[in-house]
Amino acid sequence: MLYELVAFADQFGPLNVFRYITFRTMGALVTALLFVFLFGPAIIDLLRIKQGKGQPIREDGPKSHFIKRGTPTMGGLMILAGVTVSTLLWANWANKFVWVALAVTLAYGAIGFYDDYLKVTKQTTSGFGGKGRLLLEFLVAAIATYAIVQMSPAALAGKLAVPFFKSVLLDLGYFFIIFGMIVIVGAGNAVNLTDGLDGLAIVPVMIAAATFGFIAYAIGRFDFARYLQVTYVAGAGELAIICGALIGAGLGFLWFNAPPAMIFMGDTGSLALGGALGAIAVATKHEIVLAICGGLFVLEAMSVIIQVASFKMTGKRVFRMAPLHHHYEQKGWAESTVVVRFWIISVILSLIALSTLKLR
């Protein structure tokens, strides 16, 4: 919306600043942050009244979690509201990548909201059926990936960029649609599984968003892309606006989610945030880099897969409890210790991900 002010830059020079993605990204970050700060308390009060008993706590989970009974969930609503308002205010509406990423974010948020709604109203940890939920997630991801392929230049459509190698593009053809679906759905559910402790998921999401904000800006500029010897994707730089909004809304949410949490983001937030990162990764041709940058999410998801597979095949558990953060809680680590150490891992992995831009 504000981008349109560039049209009046000839009459008033300072308006030319809205042309720059860096300025609008910071504007999106600050706007989302202020939005969540201002409206967060009212949203929390409303959710507490509507939900009553709050998010159900797993009976087989760590005993330290029982003191969190009554904490409201669906805090992802304030994140989504902040991201949406900020993106619409600062992004270029003519950019189709922005609309696709925002659509995935909101669609996944809606799926997560329904799941949270069932859990709260029925007071059970089982919400939306797994098969039905995954079907909807894959459907949204399929539409988004197909749209991205159609928007991409012919030289990039259906191609997978390989990090650490310059100009290496694997032609996946129609299989790229399936690959993109797996990336988006996988990212959404991996972040969802990571969201189990106060502040655990939101900080790694912000770190990943910052990483992809830089990547989107770099590959969206021909001169930067040529210097870094990475694939140039025209228009992808505008996705940095959404990344900025994710960081701002995340910081605002963390204020209320810091231990002891006043509110949980729930599936409403975690599924949406993961889906957003997945869609941005597909649009920027950095799907593999997302697996590096979001390695913590991958580890959390893999711990669940390994635990389930091992128990079904051998009757034994590899971890004391899955996802991985609960394993370390059961080993005696304090919740704050797990959270901070996982944050450190996220920072290290993001630095490695950024190094792929130059190590070619």
Descriptive account of the structure:
The protein is mostly helical and 360 residues long. It has one domain. The chain is 64% helix and 2% strand. The chain contains 13 helices and two strands. It has a two-stranded antiparallel ribbon. A hairpin with a 7-residue loop joins β1 and β2. α5 (175-194) packs antiparallel against α9 (266-283). The longest helix is centred in the first third of the chain and has 31 residues, at 21-51.
Characteristic terms for this protein:
360 residues; mainly alpha; two-stranded antiparallel ribbon; 13 helices; 2% strand
Topology:
Elements: H1 21-51, H2 76-90, H3 96-122, H4 130-151, E1 159-161, E2 169-171, H5 175-194, H6 202-219, H7 222-228, H8 239-257, H9 266-283, H10 287-293, H11 295-314, H12 324-330, H13 335-355
Antiparallel strand pairs: 1-2
Radius of gyration: 20 Å
Helix content: 55-70%
**Total strand segments:** 2
How many structural domains can be distinguished in the coordinates?
Answer: 1
Structural class designation: mainly alpha
Strand content: under 5%
Order of helices and strands: HHHHEEHHHHHHHHH
Based on CA inertia axes, which overall geometry fits? globular
Query: What's the tally of helices?
Result: 13
Intertermini distance: 38 Å
The residue ranges in which pLDDT falls below 50 over 5 or more consecutive positions are none
In spatial order, strands of the major sheet run: 1-2
Main sheet attributes: strand count, strand direction, barrel closure: 2 strands, antiparallel
Mean pLDDT: 91
